[in-house]
Write a structure and sequence with these properties.
- The protein is an alpha/beta fold.
- It has three domains: 111 residues, Tetrapyrrole methylase, N-terminal domain (Cobalt-precorrin-4 Transmethylase, domain 1, 3-Layer(aba) Sandwich); 106 residues, Tetrapyrrole methylase, C-terminal domain (Methyltransferase, Cobalt-precorrin-4 Transmethylase, Domain 2, 2-Layer Sandwich); 50 residues.
- 41% of the residues lie in helices and 17% in strands.
- It has eleven helices and ten strands.
- The strands form two sheets. Strands 3-2-4-1-5 form a five-stranded parallel β-sheet, sandwiched between helices. The chain has a five-stranded mixed β-sheet with strand order 6-7-10-8-9.
- Helix 7 runs antiparallel to helix 8.
- The chain is globular and about 80 Å long.
- The protein binds S-adenosylmethionine (SAM).
- S-adenosylmethionine binds next to helix 5, strand 7, strand 8 and strand 10.
């Protein structure tokens, strides 16, 4: 019996021609296909000319319940493909729970990579791509939303967010509130579809835009990272060490705490604390030689 495998298959985010030959082969070879919506996946299978395999509904409500049955299939040596309505399973879509269960049970997990709206929007945005974070959908309300917005506001890497069109105005207004109106943002809308559009501007301009033009279709928001805090001057570091020493910290502890807070090297702060300009409240006779501990 050949070993079973869970195969994550990326599907098009709009244009069905983005399905690669490997997608067709993987779906044709699957003994069963997990999908969110049988009609939608049925249309894709028929477009690809794949004879309808057994379909198992794996959506946000059923994913957990499908784990035992799918693990049984893998144990019998079956290949179970998993698709979502669009893009990569497991990215703001079912997948994570099944993958973890399959991995923990020792089954092979394979991936047929392909379109994902997040990656497509990021690379077309024109914003820095070297370091980015994916936030998916923000929590809709309450303190969870406030905390996430606060974290996004200070995030220095490019941030990729998903949003439904009817919530876009509020999300853009909230982002402008925490990040300020000057932060750059990109809307990547209806990617790969007839009405594909990439709009670039500031959050202030985005607020005005969504008020003027009702957002339609699927959107990814790509937000520029927060500016890196300015490098602290030596005088600022010495003042911070002085303040920490005044609360009773040792020079070493004060230097470590200040280094952590300002994101600079401990040695720099410690050397400054011991240097001639330091006002750390210790007499020169009590200053420590470099490298010794207090
Ligand atoms: N798993 C998918 C992926 O890999 O991109 C994402 C699924 S998530 C439930 C759906 C969200 O993805 C939409 O609300 C939208 O934010 C984004 N999205 C999906 N297709 C898109 C497209 N063609 N253009 C822009 N955004 C899209």
């Amino acid at each position: 019996m050949s070993p079973g495998a869970l195969v994550l298959v990326a599907t098009p985010i709009g244009n069905l021609d983005d399905a690669s030959p490997r997608v067709t082969a993987a779906l044709a070879a699957a003994d069963a296909v997990g999908c969110e919506d049988t009609r939608r996946t049925g249309r894709l299978l028929s477009h690809l000319g794949v004879a309808a395999p057994r379909l198992i509904v794996v959506n946000e409500h059923t994913e957990r319940d499908t784990v035992p049955g799918i693990l049984d299939r893998l144990a019998r040596g079956e290949r179970v493909a998993l698709v979502s309505d669009a893009g990569l399973p497991g990215i703001s879509d079912p997948g994570e729970v099944l993958v973890r269960a399959a991995v923990e049970a020792g089954f092979a997990v394979e991936v047929i990579p392909g379109p994902s709206a997040a990656a497509a929007a990021l690379v077309v945005s024109g914003l820095p791509t070297a370091r980015f974070v994916f936030e998916g959908f923000l929590p809709r309300k309450g303190s969870a939303r406030t905390r996430r917005l606060t974290a996004v506001a200070t995030e220095e890497r490019t941030v990729v967010l998903y949003e439904a069109p009817h919530r876009l105005a509020r999300t853009v207004a909230d982002l402008a509130g925490v990040c300020g109106p000057e932060r750059r943002v990109v809307f990547a809308r209806e990617l790969t579809k007839l009405h594909e559009e990439v709009w670039r501007g500031t959050l202030g301009e985005a607020v005005a835009r969504v008020a003027a033009v009702e957002p339609r279709g699927e959107h990814v928001l790509v937000l520029d990272g927060a500016p890196a805090p300015a490098e602290p001057t030596d005088a600022e570091l010495v003042a911070a060490v002085t303040a920490a020493r005044a609360t009773g910290s040792s020079t070493r502890d004060a230097a470590a705490e200040v280094a952590e807070r300002f994101g600079v090297g401990r040695k720099r702060v410690y050397d400054l604390a011991l240097g001639p300009d330091a006002q750390v409240g210790v007499s020169s006779s009590r200053r420590l030689p470099k490298g010794s501990s207090t």
